[in-house]
Design goal:
three-stranded mixed sheet; 6 helices; 5 strands; about 45% helix; disordered N terminus
Length: about 190
């Protein structure tokens, strides 16, 4: 019995460890895109504050055969749709950088093939909120649920603990946005 409990707790801790590694890799891929595109460099400080804790986790799609190539995205409850769309554009740029065509043959660059991340608007991630982000980085309904009337300079949980800053407009270079728009607004990335 004790052996079974130990092996289950070991599995849970290993699973949590690999989740943190995946989040750090996702954060670093997106950060690399920001660093590569000069028009995105002004967002680096906010993105670094968002950190790996602000990234969406994912889980294997149980309907896929092994090895699974599709992963269902699990978003943090507190993160806004605006940030989600902006991050998906970063994912698109990364994916584009990994693709190549040789004649009629489609290939990915060296390394493991990119994950197909399916967005089902699943906000079940238990990720803890990140403090001190621009207010538009947070889901407005989530903030209101945490502290009704918070935007009127209340002195409750949101204003004293989460401490959102003034909102920051998230823009993306127009030439990249045009080609990425249909892809980034789809359910896949």
């Amino acid at each position: 019995m004790a052996e079974k409990i130990y092996s289950e707790s070991l599995f849970i801790s290993i699973e949590g460890f690999t989740d943190r590694i995946s989040l750090k890799k996702l954060f670093q891929r997106r950060r690399d895109v920001i660093m590569t595109i000069p028009a995105l460099n002004p967002y680096l400080e906010d993105f670094d504050q968002l950190g790996a804790g602000g990234m969406s986790s994912d889980e294997e799609d149980p309907g896929m055969s092994k090895p699974s190539m599709a992963y269902n995205i699990r978003e943090p409850k507190w993160r806004s749709e605006e940030v989600k769309r902006w991050l998906r554009l970063l994912d698109f740029v990364h994916l584009e950088s990994r693709c190549s065509m040789e004649g009629y043959q489609f290939r990915f660059s060296r390394g493991a093939p990119p994950r197909l991340r399916v967005d089902n608007n699943n906000k079940t991630s238990t990720a803890r909120y990140v403090r001190g982000l621009p207010s538009n980085f947070y889901d407005a309904r989530w903030l209101e649920a945490m502290e009704p009337g918070w935007s009127k300079s209340g002195t409750g949980f949101v204003n004293l603990v989460i401490r959102p800053k003034n909102s920051r407009k998230l823009t993306f270079p127009e030439d990249l946005s045009r080609c990425a728009l249909s892809f980034a607004t789809s359910d896949y990335i």
